[in-house]
């Protein structure tokens, strides 16, 4: 496992060069990839400049978000799908083989079975394209009960359900984006993780939850820095990942507004320190 920086997840902006410098200065071992930038450079015959940037800063490409909107109408989906081969090819050329996305745990339009089939069909199309470049698709379940409350149709919100969807997609390159927040709010256990094969986890997010709230009262975008409150068993989460052989990125996604108010280098430094803290707590530092 390696400490990975997703600048957008902590409210840090800037060019790839600027973010890479921040990542190196504050102790990260990886950084998410801008696949669109990589694709343009590949087409210009200049991808080696981006490769050298990662190498000179001691960074491993973490992942790139699925750039296809599969949640809306078919025209929007097909438009995004048409651009995916270009981005997947460039990401693979950069050695970036992890493409995560998230799945809404409800629909106000489609009953469960119809929603499942729509996701299966559309994500199968995405996964087939990614597979051509050796890229894995990671699906994130969204656990909090507060996300589903009052919605017309409930959809997948836990690990078992998302693994069922991954299997149904049927391409052999689909697993989980496993976020410890959603694992916690979906009543996941360490044993659930220990039953997985390492290839079933494509990407991970870490964070913590506010203290003093029942699990079912937790709200998705109200979180804490990794290890801040101890509400989530982050040590157990990370130890289980290590035990099954997961060797991918560990990325903070804390949704802490105060980070955005800090200078970029300080936001990165605090995030890096939080990741160091939880890795040490798990005996992995």
Folded structure, characterized:
The chain is of the alpha/beta class. The chain has one domain: Divalent-metal-dependent TIM barrel enzymes (TIM Barrel), CATH 3.20.20.150. The chain contains twelve helices and ten strands. An eight-stranded parallel β-sheet has the order 3-2-1-10-9-8-6-4. The protein has a two-stranded antiparallel sheet with strand order 5-7. Strand 1 (2-5), helix 1 and strand 2 (30-31) form a beta-alpha-beta unit. The mean pLDDT is 97.
Class of secondary structure makeup: alpha/beta
> For the residues shown, what is the average pLDDT?
97
Rg, rounded, reads 18 Å
- Note the gap between the termini: 10 Å
Note the main sheet: 8 strands, parallel
Short structural description:
The protein is α/β, with parallel strands linked by helices and 285 residues long. It has 12 helices and 10 strands.
Task: Note the main attributes of this structure.
single chain, 285 residues, alpha/beta, TIM Barrel, eight-stranded parallel beta sheet, two-stranded antiparallel ribbon, 12 helices, 45% helix
């Amino acid at each position: 496992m390696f400490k990975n920086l997703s600048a957008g997840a902590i409210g840090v902006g800037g060019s790839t060069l600027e973010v890479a410098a921040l990542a190196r200065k504050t102790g990260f071992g990886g950084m998410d990839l801008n696949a669109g930038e990589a694709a343009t450079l590949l087409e210009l015959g200049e991808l080696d400049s981006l490769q050298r940037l990662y190498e000179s800063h001691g960074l491993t490409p973490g992942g790139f978000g699925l750039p296809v909107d599969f949640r809306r109408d078919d025209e929007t989906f097909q438009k995004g799908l048409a651009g995916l081969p270009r981005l997947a090819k460039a990401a693979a050329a950069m050695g970036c083989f992890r493409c995560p996305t998230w799945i809404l745990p409800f629909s106000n339009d489609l009953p469960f079975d119809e929603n499942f089939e729509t996701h299966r069909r559309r994500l199968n199309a995405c996964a087939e394209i990614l597979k051509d470049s050796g890229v894995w698709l990671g699906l994130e379940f969204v656990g909090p009960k507060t996300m589903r409350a009052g919605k017309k149709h409930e959809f997948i919100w836990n690990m078992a359900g998302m693994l069922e969807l991954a299997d149904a997609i049927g391409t052999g390159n689909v697993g989980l984006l496993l976020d410890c927040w959603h694992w916690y709010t979906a009543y996941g256990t360490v044993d659930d993780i220990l039953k997985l094969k390492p290839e079933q986890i494509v990407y991970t997010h870490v964070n913590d939850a506010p203290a003093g709230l029942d699990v079912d009262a937790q709200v998705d975008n109200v979180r804490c820095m990794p290890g801040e409150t101890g509400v989530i068993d982050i040590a157990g989460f990370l130890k289980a990942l290590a035990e099954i052989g997961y060797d991918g990125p560990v990325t903070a996604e804390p949704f802490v507004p105060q980070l955005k108010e800090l200078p970029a280098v300080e936001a990165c430094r605090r995030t890096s320190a939080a990741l160091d803290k939880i890795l040490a707590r798990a005996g992995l530092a």
